[in-house]
Structures are given as structure tokens and as C-alpha cells.
Amino acid sequence: MQKIITALLIFIFSALTPVQASQTEIFTKAVFHIDANNTPMLELQNSRIVSCKSSIGNGIAKSCDIESSPMYTHDKEKAAFSFDGQNDFLVIDLPNELRLGSIHIFVAGNLRKAKTTQYFVGSKPDARLDLFANNKEFLVELGFEAHSLKHGPLLDEKPHLFELSHFLPEKVTGQIPPAHYFVDGNICGRPFSKSIEIITKTLTFGAHNSGSAGHLNGNIYEIIIFDKPLTECEQNFVRSYLGNKWNININEPSANNNSVKLKETRVGPDGQYSSIGIYNECPESPDGKRILYVIFDKAPSNDQPLAPFSLWVCDSNLQNHKLVQKSENPTDNHNAAFQQWVDNDSVAYCSSYIAKLPDGSYHKREIRVFNVDTGKVEFGPYTDGFLGDSTAKGKILMNVDGDQSNLGPRGVYELDTKTGNVRCVCKARDFGWYAENLDWYGMKKNCKRWDPTHARFSPEGTRISFMFNAGGSQYLFFTCNADGSNLKYWGADKPLHELWFDENTICGADEITDDNNPDNLSFRRWDLNKRVIETLAGQVNHTAFSPDRQWFAGESFYRSNPVELYIYKRGQTIATATVFQSDAQIVWQKVGHVNPSFSRDGSRLYYNRPVGDLKQAYFCDISSLVKK
To answer: What's the pLDDT band for 581 if we cut at 50, 70, 90?
Structure first.
């Protein structure tokens, strides 16, 4: 039978145009493919499924006994594997190893009845590959991590397409999201699991943990599994195929405008690895006269993520480049030195936020403020932490996530450079109530071990936002007044790469926010009660806005290839311009993020971009664009 199918595929390919053939050949890359319509591959007993052979390779899905076998149903519109929600499930048998970290799975199916957990695909707890859903949430578990998305309603008697793409880069240090998960073509999240467990012998369809729990009350129409990454075009082709076949409304990627050409200008020297700082933090001095950037002595790598660096300034017309500080400690590729202007003369910076290195050793981390004209260190070093994301009125924020800091215990601290006063905004140990009343797999119940990160001032410095990494890839997001009062817990569903829009509202990419709006990565604005005020722009990742809040920028989502940087006019979901398209290796695998930011007068957009094997600081002139 397999030889006949292979010969038939070859015959079909020979009759197709080159484009059609290349698209259809995508399915020959699959390691497992079952389809309820493919009746020759089915073995039935009294309308129950005994087994279903994969149309690719030698895999098979089979029942353990006839009582736990799903029914086979067929009507004029579609065939299905029908699971009763009681004890039905199928197990997969593959001749070759299948691992987490090397898998893309597509499941077309639907739900009939709401349950807390219903598994389209499950595994044993030690291997952990679970795709499950109820009427309002789609959830994924990888390794020890669980992630949920309120995508709903999924209980609408309509077929949906569920996906997980999980490919681990090798030897990566830092926050590399190796996975995506999707519903109906909408990218919905990014589990951080680093698991590489073998899952070949433990996969089940329609239940979890070898059929012992989470039985599906619904249908599975088709499952396709790949063990090699697919290009975006290939992914979209598979989605289109399944969407057309099973009448699933697949989200089509928006066509952003590539016709507007913007002139790009390199900031630093040619041939060297350079970088601006964190997203939305303008590299220009407050008066707009000088530009601050970092030059690495060598390119950071996954094996050696830290590299020596120096800080440089130049005039805004790119004249008079000057070395202003050689760091005593190295930094990484992620946000460079978090370098930030405190005023027109002083700059704050830090060494890497990474504490533990791949070889198990620990890195010395320090924060300093220095004068760019004299090179004199004015404040610091402050130890065992790293800078917050922004400055305000001569003040900086510091995230202390180690236990040996000269500032004090883990928490968020503020330095006022006008007075030299340092004060603690909050301490991790004071968040015990949240540790006691929240729970998820992998959570650190001792709040003293929580890691503060991404502390950020509102534009006028009257409020602060920050988060704690509490374990299990969950980040608890908080806001408060600048003095630490009026603490408000947002949740773990914070906007992605959030910013303060003004003193009372925040903005960012809507990835998992529980706000009754689609989690489609649109650039949105919320009040502090999670109410959506407006959709500012289309899809973004690392975010930035112009001083007048009329223009917005961000790049394509994690693991996109090519990486694209978009500029949007306020209120428009289609980009006005695509600044560049580039290979993804440096941006994602090597964590050299684009990190856009606007100039003080809004006439430029600064960013990092890949140039061959380098990451370099650039800007493009958008003055003609914003004046239209």
C-alpha cells in the first residue's frame, strides 16, 4: 500500500506546475499524517477505529481496546474521529524518535462540550507535549511549562486549527522563546520550555497521560506532524490546505506596505558590532544633540554570550565619534548595556543582566552613572542587578535580582542623580500574599527568590511598572505610584513589551492579555484595569512610539524569518512602511533584538539591524513620512 501511495504522489507531482509541486511536496516532509477522509488507511470494527495508518512513513495511530476506541463518523460534509469525552483515545506508534524541541504539529478538530481540560494531543508528564482546550481557552504544556490563551469561544461547533511549533536552537543563553502556538492561524503565544524529551512512545490523541485523563469530547479531522522547521510560506500553505478542506476560517497575514522606501543610515563604524539600548529608550541626549551607542569588542555568541564593550557618543549629524567609557565588565546581545541618558551630560549603563553563564560560573554585574564629557563615574557601582528600562527627571530604576547587592535584598530601587539619594521602591520578600494565593506548575513559592525585571517609569515619573519572574515562565506585572504606594496587580497576562503611554495608561503588544479582544499582537492601549482604550497599530513585538504618540513601530514576532521592522500611523493596522527585511539568525537565535525607538523630535527611527554576521545600530529618516 505504501509503495502505491508513493507512486501516486510522484505521478501527481509530475502533473503539477513547479509552484504547485513545491507546495504539495511540503507534505512529503511530514513524519506523520492521518486524515479521517482517507478511508483506505483505516481499520474499523463496528464503526470504531481499530487503527489508522499514516499516509507518510510507517507511523500508525491505534486503539488499546475496542471499548476505548473513538467512533468513525462520516456525513456528506466531512469524516471525523469522534471522541466521547469518557474513555476514547488513540496512541501513536512511530518507527523513529520524535522529540520536543523538534516538532511542528497541526490538529484540525472541534469541541462539543465544555470541560476543564480536553486534550487533542497528550503525553506522559515526564515528556509533556499537551495541546488542550475548553470552551474559552487554548492551552499548551511543554516540558514543565503551561501557557493558556483566552481565545474563545472555541465551543461553537465549528472546526478549529490548533498548532504548536517547537524548535530549540542549540546552546542558547538568554530568553529565547523556542516555540509558537496558534489557533486558526493566529499566533497566540510562545512557551519557553527547554525540554528535549523523547515523546515518540507516549503521544496520545484525544486524551492525556496514556489515556488516563483529559478525554476529548469532540472530533479530530486531521493531524499532520513535522520534525523539521517549515518556512512561513510552507506553514501558510498547510494552514490554507486544512482551512479549505475542513471549512476553518484561517487568519490571513496582513499585507504591510513595502512600497515606501526609507533611507537607512548606520550610526557606528563599519565592520564593528554595535547596538543601541532597550526598546523605546531614545539614544539621543534629551536636547537631541548627541547619540549614544555601544561597540562590542567581539560579537557575542551562544557559547560565549558575554563580550567586552565600550560606550560611544557622536553628534546627531554623525560627526565627532568619541569613546566615553570602557566597561569593566562584559554584556550580552539582548539590550546591550541598557544605556540611557540621565540628562544632557550623564549616562547610566550596566553590564549584562545574565547572572549564570553556560559553564556554570557567575558573572559580576554592576550599574554605573558617568559623565560623558569627563568620563568620571558619578554614581555606583551598584552590584548584583541591572538597569530598569527608562529614566525620568534625572532618576533611574534598578532591578536587584541577586542576593549580594550593596543596595539591599531583591527588589526595585530608585536613584535620584540630582540628590544622590537611593531608595527601595519594593522588595520581593514583601509579596508573600501573592506567593500564597497564586499557584502554577514551576512557581517559586518563596517570594524572596522572585526576580524583579523591566522596572519602568511613566513619562513624567509619577508611576512605576515592574514585574517579577516567579518561576514557570510566568511574570507577575504590577504598577504603583513612584513612592511605591497604590500598588496594583495586573496579573500574569501583561501586554508584551509594555510601555507607559502616559501617566495613567499603558500600551504594548496584545499577546495574552485577558481583555475580551483577540490576542493577535496588535499594538493596543489599556487603562490600569485592563480595559482597552484603543488599538494603536497592527502587529508589533518590541514596541516604540513617537513623542507625539502619532507613530508606532515594532518588528515581526519571535522566530519570524525574515525579520521585518514596521512603522504605523496611529489607528492603522496596516503598516505605512516596512523599514527592512533581514535574516533571523542574529535577531532570534543570537538574541540581537531590533529594539526600535524614535528620536526626540520624531523625525528618525533608531533600531538595531543585522548586517551580514554583525548587528549594527542604524536609523532611518522618517521626516517626509510623518509630515504627510
So the answer is: very high
Do the beta carbons of residue 209 and residue 201 sit within 8 Å?
Answer: no
Specify the residue for cell string 513535522: 226
Dist. CA 616–CA 276, nearest whole Å: 8
Q: Rounded to an integer, what distance in angstroms lies between the CA atom of residue 586 and that of residue 610?
A: 6
- Structural contact between residues 407 and 465, judged by C-beta atoms closer than 8 angstroms: no
The x, y and z cell numbers of residue 149, run together, are: 490563551
Domains, the chain: 31-246 (2.60.120.200), 264-626 (2.130.10.10)
Closest CA to 596 of 575, 613, 573, 612: 575
As a whole number of angstroms, the distance between CA 348 and CA 338 comes to: 8
> Of 170 and 66, which is predicted with more confidence?
66
> Model pTM?
0.87
Q: Are 586 and 592 in contact (CB under 8 A)?
A: yes
Enter the C-alpha cell of residue 565.
521592522
Confidence of residue 170 (pLDDT cuts 50, 70, 90): low
User: What are the distances in angstroms from CA 481 to CA 460, 476, 495, 503?
Assistant: 11, 17, 19, 10
Strand 463-469 relative to strand 451-457, pairing: antiparallel
Q: Are 325 and 311 in contact (CB under 8 A)?
A: yes
